[in-house]
């Protein structure tokens, strides 16, 4: 066990400076591959939240930030994007230590974050109002958009920097300010990102970071009266609690929650490509993705052949040190999640699903937080393994007969985040994509996202959208202005 006194200590980032927590307490953050603490994280509380929200509120109400034009905000965002790209390796190294993301993926992800901020830099001055030709005579009517205010950004441990950027870039383009509460398991990268805002020239207080636990930081942040909007990515239960708390203050929310997405392979699909899509959907990122294609729906006539090809492909995947470029599957990011994944494997077995690959932990690798890529066949869609989000490298395979059956099974869950269709038939692709109730549908690919395209869910997968040009409006209020052009005020007792 490392001597915690000698480890790097990460304070909160409040009002443009790194500051110690009000409590004076820190807690260790562990590398999931080595199992050892590598840094100490500030244990924030309601006092830190109060200081951060006060800083964000001041920055929103007065000073340089509200005086900036949208074009000036855009230039700051562009500069930040350049800094993120220049510091991509440093930020990626922190992400790898904190949650075991693969080196082969995370550096590219961080660089892409820089482009994300630059996309919204370009959109900042392109939110256009409109003149409304009303049915009333003697008035001139137009709309304008105004920033909502302080936004609470609450992010999970699976893709901390990426999911923080999905919220930060559009809210800053809109003119809001932010207080970030990262997962207690992966907080260091958010603090490091905060430092880059200062270098980019953002005014103090525009972006703040408070680290710590949900009850001590998350709850007082959501409840704070000066927080106007909450952007949250995470589990369904936590999202529901945030929504309930936000409702008490009539705050708006963007919630990106869980998924149980169907990856549907028809008998006319290119099976070699479909296998790659199935692997990308569930075993990439160790299955720790809200959009994971955790339910593989296979047409009966090709079931055995596809599963044989899939087992052959996945059994060759390399598990191991995420810092090595040839590693394909890393550790589960946290011990509680590792134990949850193993418990679901046992549930699947007890319900009668057949484990045809994996199904065990790998204590011989790293600190032991590895789960073999696992495939269950003979799964009925009513089983818990098919209905509940496992958030790990566990795939449920379900047979279907035809398009109608595939659509029925695909929609028969509480979630509606994503889905995919593998077919060579344009008619079939259009039919199924029209009928699936999900926010993102891929055809003959899986897991592609872009800052240009909206992402979000139907049903219990969330509220609102992230990415794309319309997302800025999640952080804006619409104001309608009526200007009288009449020289004389009409009868004041009659509504115009």
Written overview of the protein:
This protein is an alpha/beta fold. It folds into 2 domains: 4-257 and 461-479, Aldehyde Dehydrogenase, Chain A, domain 1, CATH 3.40.605; 262-443, Aldehyde Dehydrogenase, Chain A, domain 2, CATH 3.40.309.10. 37% of the residues lie in helices and 21% in strands. The strands form 6 sheets. It has a 7-stranded mixed sheet, with helices on both faces. Helix 1 (46-61) packs parallel to helix 8, helix 3 packs antiparallel against helix 5 (103-123) and helix 3 (70-86) crosses helix 7. The protein is globular, with a radius of gyration of 24 Å. The mean pLDDT is 96. Residues 21-481 form the Aldehyde dehydrogenase domain.
Strand and helix map with partners:
Blueprint: E1 9-10, E2 12-14, E3 17-19, E4 26-30, E5 37-42, H1 46-61, H2 64-67, H3 70-86, H4 88-99, H5 103-123, E6 131-132, E7 139-147, E8 150-154, H6 160-174, E9 177-181, H7 188-200, E10 207-209, H8 214-223, E11 227-233, H9 236-248, E12 252-256, E13 262-265, H10 271-282, E14 295-299, H11 303-314, H12 335-350, E15 354-357, E16 374-377, H13 384-387, E17 394-400, H14 403-411, E18 415-416, E19 418-422, H15 426-435, E20 440-443, E21 458-459, E22 462-463, E23 476-484
Parallel strand pairs: 1-5, 8-9, 8-11, 9-10, 11-12, 13-14, 13-19, 14-17, 16-17, 19-20
Antiparallel strand pairs: 2-3, 4-5, 6-7, 7-23, 12-22, 15-16, 18-21
Helix pairs in contact: 1-8, 3-5, 3-6, 3-7, 4-5, 4-7, 5-6, 10-11
Protein name: NAD-dependent aldehyde dehydrogenase
Active site: 256
Organism: Thauera phenylacetica B4P
């Amino acid at each position: 066990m490392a001597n915690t006194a000698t480890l790097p200590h990460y304070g909160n980032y409040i009002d443009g400076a790194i500051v110690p927590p009000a409590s004076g307490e820190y807690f260790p953050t562990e590398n999931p591959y080595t199992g050892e603490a590598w840094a100490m994280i500030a244990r924030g509380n309601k006092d830190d939240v109060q200081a951060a929200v006060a800083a964000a509120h001041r920055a929103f109400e007065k000073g340089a930030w509200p005086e900036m034009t949208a074009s000036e905000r855009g230039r700051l965002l562009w500069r930040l994007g350049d800094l993120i790209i220049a510091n991509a390796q440093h930020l990626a190294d922190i992400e790898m230590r904190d949650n075991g993301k693969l080196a082969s993926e995370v550096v590219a992800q961080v660089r892409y974050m820089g482009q994300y901020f630059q996309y919204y830099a370009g959109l900042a001055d392109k939110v256009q109002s409109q003149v409304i030709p009303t049915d009333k005579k003697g008035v001139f009517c137009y709309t304008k958009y105004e920033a909502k205010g302080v936004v609470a950004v609450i992010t999970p441990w699976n893709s901390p920097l990426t999911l923080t950027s999905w919220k930060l870039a559009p809210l800053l383009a809109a003119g809001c300010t932010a207080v970030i509460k990262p997962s207690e398991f992966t907080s260091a990268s958010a603090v490091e990102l905060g430092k880059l805002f200062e270098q980019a020239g953002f005014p103090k207080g525009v972006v703040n970071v408070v680290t710590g636990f949900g009850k001590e930081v998350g709850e007082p942040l959501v409840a704070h009266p000066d927080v106007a909007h909450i952007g949250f990515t995470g589990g369904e239960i936590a999202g529901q609690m945030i929504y309930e708390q936000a409702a008490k203050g009539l705050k708006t929310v963007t919630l990106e929650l869980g998924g149980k997405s169907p990856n549907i392979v028809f008998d006319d699909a290119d099976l070699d490509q479909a296998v790659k899509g199935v692997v990308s959907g569930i075993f990439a990122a160790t299955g720790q993705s809200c959009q994971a294609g955790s339910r593989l729906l296979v047409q009966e006539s090709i079931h055995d052949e596809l599963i044989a090809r899939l087992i052959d492909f996945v059994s060759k995947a390399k598990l191991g040190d995420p810092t090595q470029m040839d590693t394909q599957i890393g550790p589960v990011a946290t011990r509680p999640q590792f134990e949850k994944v193993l418990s679901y494997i046992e549930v699947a077995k007890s319900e009668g699903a057949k484990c045809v690959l994996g199904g065990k932990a790998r204590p011989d690798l790293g600190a032991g937080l590895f789960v073999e890529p696992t495939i269950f066949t003979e799964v009925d869609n009513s089983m818990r393994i098919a209905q509940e989000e496992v958030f790990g490298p566990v795939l449920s395979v379900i047979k279907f007969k035809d398009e109608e059956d595939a659509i029925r099974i695909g929609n028969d869950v509480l979630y509606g985040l994503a889905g995919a269709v593998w077919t060579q038939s344009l008619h079939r692709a259009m039919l199924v994509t029209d009928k699936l109730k999900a926010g993102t549908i891929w055809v003959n690919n899986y897991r592609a996202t872009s800052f240009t395209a909206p992402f979000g869910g139907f049903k219990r997968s969330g509220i609102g959208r992230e990415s794309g040009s319309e997302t800025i409006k999640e952080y804006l209020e619409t104001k309608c202005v009526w200007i009288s052009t009449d020289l004389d005020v009409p009868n004041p007792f009659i509504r115009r």
